[in-house]
Amino acid sequence: MRLALCQINPTVGDVDGNAAKIAAWIERARAAGAELAIFPELCVPGYPAEDLYLKHHFLAANVAAVEELARGLAPGITAMVGFAEPVEAGGDYRHAYNSLAVLADGAVRRVYRKNRLPNYSVFDEQRYFVPGTEGDAVEVAGTRVGLTICEDTWAPGPPGQAEADAGARLISNPSGSPYHRGKGHEREEMFGQRAREYGSYFAFVNLVGGQDELVFDGQSFLLGPDGAVLARAAQFEEDLVVVDVPAPEGEPAPLADALPDLDEVYGALELGLHDYVEKNGFRHVGLGISGGIDSALVAMLAVDALGPERVTLVVMPSPHSSDETQDDARQIAHNLGTELIDIPIEPMMDGYRDALDRHLNPAAADSDSSPSDPTKPSEPDLAAENIQARIRGNLMMALSNRHGWLVLTTGNKSEMSVGYATLYGDMAGGFAVIKDVPKTLVYELVERRNERAGRELVPASVIERPPSAELRPDQLDSDSLPDYDLLDRILEAYVERDEGRDEMVAAGMPGEIVDEVIRLVDRSEYKRRQAAPGIRITPRAFGRDRRLPITNRFGG
Amino acid sequence: MRLALCQINPTVGDVDGNAAKIAAWIERARAAGAELAIFPELCVPGYPAEDLYLKHHFLAANVAAVEELARGLAPGITAMVGFAEPVEAGGDYRHAYNSLAVLADGAVRRVYRKNRLPNYSVFDEQRYFVPGTEGDAVEVAGTRVGLTICEDTWAPGPPGQAEADAGARLISNPSGSPYHRGKGHEREEMFGQRAREYGSYFAFVNLVGGQDELVFDGQSFLLGPDGAVLARAAQFEEDLVVVDVPAPEGEPAPLADALPDLDEVYGALELGLHDYVEKNGFRHVGLGISGGIDSALVAMLAVDALGPERVTLVVMPSPHSSDETQDDARQIAHNLGTELIDIPIEPMMDGYRDALDRHLNPAAADSDSSPSDPTKPSEPDLAAENIQARIRGNLMMALSNRHGWLVLTTGNKSEMSVGYATLYGDMAGGFAVIKDVPKTLVYELVERRNERAGRELVPASVIERPPSAELRPDQLDSDSLPDYDLLDRILEAYVERDEGRDEMVAAGMPGEIVDEVIRLVDRSEYKRRQAAPGIRITPRAFGRDRRLPITNRFGG
Known about the structure:
- The structure is a homodimer.
- Chain A is of the alpha/beta class.
- The first copy, chain A, has helices at residues 15-31, 56-71, 125-128, 160-165, 183-198, 261-279, 293-306, 323-336, 346-360, 362-366, 382-403, 413-418, 439-453, 460-464, 477-480, 484-496, 501-506, 511-523, 525-529, and strands at 2-7, 36-38, 78-86, 96-104, 107-113, 136-140, 143-147, 170-175, 201-206, 208-211, 214-217, 221-223, 229-232, 239-244, 285-288, 311-315, 339-342, 406-409, 431-432.
- Chains A and B meet through helix 2, helix 6, helix 9, helix 11 and helix 17 of A and helix 2, helix 6, helix 9, helix 11 and helix 17 of B.
């Protein structure tokens, strides 16, 4: 049997657009001689469409699209497409199954309903779907194909095992499996185990594309009954892989290379950003660039995702900005070929100081000195520091309002964890590209991108300079935060693995610093709740993946 | 048997504090002669503690607290307390049951595990808990008491029915049932039906208190086997209700009155605000007051929840602010007895205009005229309007940073729905008190509060003036939005009932306006995602209750 792994990038909610894409890909598969075209999970409505799955009229639209696809199907090919199947009657608050329609000869020939509905991590499928309770298989071109969907085969047993036991030669597994670092390799290992248990061929067909926080990385594959990878689709792009089952002897296998670790992370960020911009209809993005490493990485990603002509960098120096960082910021814009706008913020800082001095510094207000008397300055404090960040945020948003830009924020995961960011300041923007990238990984990604470019797209001085927010004279991140190597290790244990203080200390981390980091993470929950969404690249990102109350007196 | 309904207000994560409160209340119940003290669902760890329930060390802490409570229990009383019971072994990603510990004679005598785990609306219990599969009952003072938890009895059948059939005279139902408008009445009706089905007494013991978006309204009750309400605890406050089963003839029933509709909504908002402030450790709140109806309501609520000495109102006039609204703002502060701060924003508007003019208005920049030449003003546009709101947001946040205030935002549900609010401007703040209150209800609540005060706490001019954001000369909300009566009807259908366009039009709403409102609601999702949390008072609030993707091409 000739099989097509149809790794497409649908858009959530775009039922008609997704169906049109599926129809075109069925034709491509058929033209390549495929007898079976497998599409990803829920590719007609898009995934995850969240509470759209609760809307009756949304379900009706996706059913109509599936029926239309079936009617339009040319002879000689069977297609498997994921859709949200309305529950006929007697449903509870949930109105749908997470289903797979098997289309052939002008009609929907069979519908399989996902048995195992993940409800952990980023998944809420038990909020939306009624589980199916039965396995199923279809005969395609003389081969018996067992039907499963994603989670169904993430553990041993039925429905996959039952279908294999009943004679399925191939287990089909349309999926919507989101990326985190190294996930593709994990899937090949785990499903290899499954294929050996089943003693069957195994076809994993994943979504590809960005959807808000999530990136689906593709990397669909066909495994042999021994777990060997017989075909592999590309990561982070649409791909049609046509392969015969069993594989003919002596022909080269269609095996896309898996990317090296850092390039994989970079690819995920690039695709997540690209798709957020395109699927939401933005033509242009803007970001503030400071000369620091974080905004340098986001600028690189934006240019790689969109091209330099769709990116504007904005440098907004204050009196605390050093000439060196300003020069670096301008150099980065030059190297990347983007537009650069320069707006000094000192005049606005003066305005706020005049307006606020008596309210921020009651002592001065009670004296006879003028509020802006330079001989009696207010203590530089958090309020004044934050105002600088917020002026910059306002400027970015004004440019966004005027020109229709999407503003990108540049905070990394280490900062977002401990609240080392200004709400409505550097946190102002629509998409937080690197919010799940720890600071130590930011450096690695920039260095690797320079290496791939064969030149210093980002100057070495940006990489070597000690990190600073430059909100007061001679400020360094290390004044208020532990060394980033240690901080990132603590954060990984606390945020990604839910370890408690005692476990971390037992693992050799210093107790005093652990306590302080836990305190900072916990009390920054309110900030994160108002942060822009960003791209998940770790096993636990801030967002739908880690849901903690703001009001929370548990220490750790 | 003498029964105590222990309607307490625990704090999420405060395991030791909650246990201490429970111990004190058991003593109070015992002193009143109670033989059985029933506490709400998950009262030891707090509810909903969200992903805290996934932390092993959090579970361990709550188990230790329950064991300590059991050891400290005086003879003669049985106590039922809700806790998160760790799964011994073989659990999946979930590590706990949602359980009820029955404490007596110095030990945990029995543990019941909730059978039905809600996973819809604001509930995610299948993310956290493994369902129990068995019913259970205990004998207390000669009476057989069937054990259930909240959702277990929201539909007919087991486990409640099975225990009643097996001879339970009383069904105990500790709950964590959040408020929406009219919910208390719904519960009494629905559980009355249940009591009749069971032919048993029915004790509903609810949490009370605010937890981020949710308010638990209390209103615990005891029903007779005929569904009659035999005892009712207060709404929106802690309450200990002691009542005998069966009720002795001729004694008055301990029946707190249920509040009239508008007072109930007001009470929910007041408690939600109070608890967010207190449980997060704030001493003071501040809010911008414009002279409009929304900030007037929030100011009233803040003063009622916290007292006038803990509230500062900040009036921030621009050249577009009318004398009348300014006077009204000052009058409200005077009537409520709060501090008032006055910070005109024109100087900062000038600073931004100078800095941005050439970037917002390229034509002017290309000419020879000075960017701030008053004879060639920039077109008043969205960017300039938003800058005013954002200057105000910055000022509020600076005061917050300096003085440790919680900043309250004042946007209502109608505005939050259609995006008629400025991100980082009037949306800047930590708690969005009335974000689930439709504009038409804002008026009703203010009028009712004036009526209760017996005087115009909020001047009639505020209520009578046509709504305006005052961001440009002569601006009115009605310039860009439909009449609020119609808007709120459309929003209720679309947001709260998930109706589609065709259903709304069939119900008589004008198609063109329905289309426009749907478009505005859908495209404002990114703003709401960055909004502060606020108090849920309707059956579907923005927040954990309505989870829609930002990237979404489905129109409606």
